[in-house]
């Protein structure tokens, strides 16, 4: 007779395992290093960044940089207009390249 609490994990279906989280009071199955990880290592880049942030005006510059990075780009605000302008710009560049190649071949042949 099989019980519902069977912990057979050898099969591909993991019979007996439920999709629910463990009940309160039960010990965790995670190893110690996963339940209580060591603190992150302080790298040279972290030390340099901490030193640079002590300079006057650095927090304001950082906030300005974050605001600049979070802005909506022009192609995000006007996607269709950007596609139309990009189409004509790429057409003009392709035409310039073709005319340049044609002019170079005309110089070499003449």
Taking pLDDT < 50 over at least 5 consecutive residues as the criterion, the unreliable ranges are none
Strand content: under 5%
> Could you tell me the mean pLDDT?
83
Alpha-carbon distance between the termini?
A: 97 Å
> Count the strands?
0
Q: Helix fraction?
A: 40-55%
Number of helices: 5
Question: Radius of gyration, rounded?
Answer: 32 Å
Biggest sheet character: none
Q: List the secondary-structure elements in sequence, H or E.
A: HHHHH
Shape: elongated
Indicate the structural class.
mainly alpha
Transmembrane segments: 81-105
Keywords: Membrane, Transmembrane, Transmembrane helix
Region (Disordered): 1-41
Task: Map the helices and strands.
Layout: H1 32-35, H2 44-52, H3 58-69, H4 74-77, H5 79-109
Molecular structure report:
The protein is mainly alpha-helical and 110 residues long. Among the domains are: 35 residues, no CATH class; 32 residues. The longest helix is centred in the C-terminal third of the chain and has 31 residues.
What would you say about this model in short?
This protein has 110 residues and is mainly alpha-helical. The protein has helices at residues 32-35, 44-52, 58-69, 74-77, 79-109.
Features:
110 residues; mainly alpha; 5 helices; 55% helix
């Amino acid at each position: 007779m099989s019980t519902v609490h069977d912990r057979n994990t050898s099969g591909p279906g993991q019979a007996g395992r439920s999709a629910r989280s463990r009940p309160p009071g039960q010990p965790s199955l995670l190893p110690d290093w996963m339940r209580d990880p060591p603190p992150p290592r302080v790298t040279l880049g972290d030390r340099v960044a901490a030193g640079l942030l002590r300079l006057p005006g650095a927090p304001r510059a950082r906030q300005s940089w974050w605001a600049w990075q979070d802005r909506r780009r022009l192609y995000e605000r006007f996607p269709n207009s950007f596609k139309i302008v990009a189409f004509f710009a790429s057409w003009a560049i392709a035409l310039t390249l073709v005319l340049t190649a044609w002019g170079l071949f005309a110089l070499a042949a003449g």
